[in-house]
From TrEMBL:
The organism of origin for this protein: Spirosoma aureum
PAS domain boundaries: 9-81
Top-level taxon in the UniProt lineage: Bacteria
Domain PAC: 85-136
Keyword terms: Kinase, Phosphoprotein, Transferase
Protein name: histidine kinase
Gene3D superfamilies xrefs: 1.10.287.130, Histidine kinase-like ATPase, C-terminal domain, PAS domain
Domain Histidine kinase: from-to ranges: 282-510
Keyword Kinase among UniProt keywords: yes
NCBIfam families: sensory_box
InterPro entries tied to this protein: HATPase_C_sf, HATPase_dom, His_kinase_dom, HisK_dim/P_dom, HisK_dim/P_sf, PAC, PAS, PAS-assoc_C
Molecular function per GO: phosphorelay sensor kinase activity
Catalytic activity line of the entry: ATP + protein L-histidine = ADP + protein N-phospho-L-histidine
The enzyme's E.C. designation: 2.7.13.3
Length: 513
């Protein structure tokens, strides 16, 4: 009785398997044989006689990335004594492509042993693809809505006869675009640009959009948007892809306002510099001429009327000394002003030649103080020769001036190439470069306490009284300004009574990197 009933049940199962469009299978777990219905052949494109009865045929057509997971899930179900199993994975079709399938099975047990599993596979590729497309659309919407840039996607409308671009239709806009235009998406999507903004057709902006849609050449420009009470500046970029174009609008209103303010400030600065140059011209002529007359008339009075002046000669000499200091101060201020406002085109400057000229100018002072000046090999840099001469003129003059009374000045000038990564942490050049020349000017003079290092490069800052050492307190400020103009930095190391070393860092020329 059992055998005819089993045969009848199997016939009914095969009849039902033929009536469904799903891929129905019957897996004998004892013999590892699998039976497939005709729906399997139709669903995955296999021909009768090309499939094998063994479970290996099934397993080897599961995508390698899914295979172990499916295997583990089936045997976990069987091991747990569960009857229902299901999973989703990719299955190889006869044409070499993969279909996404939803597979489910039912396990039959005899005396506690799994002997058979029957099930059905359903092709869900279309649903998975649609879900992935929807997820991508949601991700794209999330990304575009999170952007600080207004983004619009437009389809190109062409004349059916000539193919000429006649309009652009809104297909997608992000939240920023809605905020910038003040219009919700439902008022724009499906409508054309000329319909929404009829006045744009007469503007140069519309011609640029048409050119982008027609030629496909990427577009970028700035636009001042003043429509319907708005007063905004945009950085506009556009690209074409097929029959679509994407336009992005970045709000640069605040940046543009700042730029316009900076332009205004720059104009004021230019006028200020012009006024400063006019003052420098006046100072170099009108202010110095009275000082020269004071000194000249003072000399006449001393030479011709010394007896009559008596003790008044001391007042006259003090007056001349003050006039002389004023003349030096005006000269130094003019030098500082010129360095701050005037920059010649950089040229290749040999620092050895510069130092030679400075030593010629200081020859008398070097001879009087019996100074020993040693100059090692110095590099060629890019810069302003006259400014660099002022730099070394001031550094060497200071080394000669601040010498110890009991010891003749000993001055050494040397150079070393230093990579940017090896610069001391305290050195911040005004221009980035791969390497720098460190030019050191060392002396054996009176030195100074390094707690005053921050002061010595400031205008009018002095560490000694005029009665001790003459000067205006501008020389090192000029040095700092020259070095900054040349993209470098300057610092010093010293101890009282132990001399000082001034280190100048200047960008190295590329051939010496």
């Amino acid at each position: 009785m059992n055998e005819p009933s089993a045969t009848l049940a199997h016939e009914r199962f095969e009849l039902l398997a033929k009536a469904t469009h799903d891929a129905v299978w019957d897996w004998n777990l004892l013999t590892d044989q699998v039976w497939w219905n005709e729906g399997f052949l139709d669903l995955f494109g296999y021909q009768p006689g090309t499939i094998q009865d063994g479970a290996n045929f099934w397993v080897t057509r599961i995508h390698p990335a899914d295979r172990q997971r499916v295997h583990d899930s089936i045997y976990h179900t069987i091991k747990q004594g569960k009857t229902n199993w299901s999973d989703e994975y990719r299955f190889l079709k006869n044409d070499g492509s993969y279909a996404y399938v939803h597979d489910r099975g039912y396990t039959l047990f005899q005396d506690g042993q799994a002997v058979r599993m029957v099930g059905a596979m359903q092709d869900i590729t279309q649903q998975v693809t649609e879900m992935a497309r929807q997820q991508q659309a949601e991700q794209l919407k999330f990304i575009t809505d999170s952007a600080l840039t207004a983004i619009g996607l437009y389809s190109i409308i062409r004349d059916s006869h000539t193919g000429e671009v006649i309009d652009l239709r809104y297909e997608l806009i992000n939240q920023m675009a809605q905020r910038m235009t003040g219009r919700p998406a439902e008022e724009l999507i499906g409508r054309t640009m000329l319909e929404v903004f009829p006045g744009i057709g007469l503007s140069g902006v519309w011609q640029q959009y048409k050119e982008l849609a027609q030629s496909g050449v990427p577009l970028r420009y700035q636009n001042h948007y003043t429509y319907e009470g708005y007063d905004l500046w945009y950085e506009v970029q556009g690209v074409r892809h097929g029959d679509w174009i994407v336009l992005s609008f970045l709000d640069i209103t605040e940046l543009k306002k700042t730029q316009l303010q900076l332009e205004s400030l720059n104009e004021e600065l230019v006028r200020s510099n012009e006024s400063l140059q006019q003052f420098a011209y006046i100072a170099s002529h009108d202010l110095q001429e009275p000082l020269r007359k004071i000194q000249s008339f003072g000399d006449i009075l001393k030479n011709n009327y010394a007896d009559q002046l008596g003790t008044g000669i001391d007042h006259l000499e003090r007056m001349q000394s003050a006039a002389g200091r004023m003349a030096v101060l005006i000269k130094d201020l003019l030098n500082f002003s010129r360095i701050s406002t005037h920059h010649d085109t950089p040229t290749s400057v040999s620092l050895e030649r510069v130092v030679e000229r400075v030593l010629d100018d200081l020859a008398l002072s070097i001879q009087e103080k019996q100074a020993d000046v040693q100059v090692e090999s110095l590099p060629t840099v890019s810069g302003d020769a006259s400014q660099l001469q002022q730099l070394f003129q001031n550094l060497l003059s200071n080394a000669l001036k601040f010498h110890r009374p009991a010891a003749p000045p000993h001055i050494r000038i040397c150079s070393q190439l230093v990579t940017a990564t090896d610069l001391p942490a305290t050195i911040k050049p005004s221009r980035q470069a791969p390497a720098y020349y460190r030019i050191s000017v060392s002396d054996n003079g009176i030195g100074f306490d390094e707690q005053y290092l921050g002061r010595i490069f400031q205008v009018f800052q002095r560490l000694h009284t005029r009665s001790q050492y003459a000067g205006t307190g501008i020389g090192l400020a000029i040095c700092e300004k020259v070095v900054t103009n040349h993209g470098g930095a300057i610092t010093a190391t010293s101890e009282p009574g132990e001399g000082a070393t001034f280190d100048v860092y200047l960008p190295a020329t590329p051939q010496n990197y």
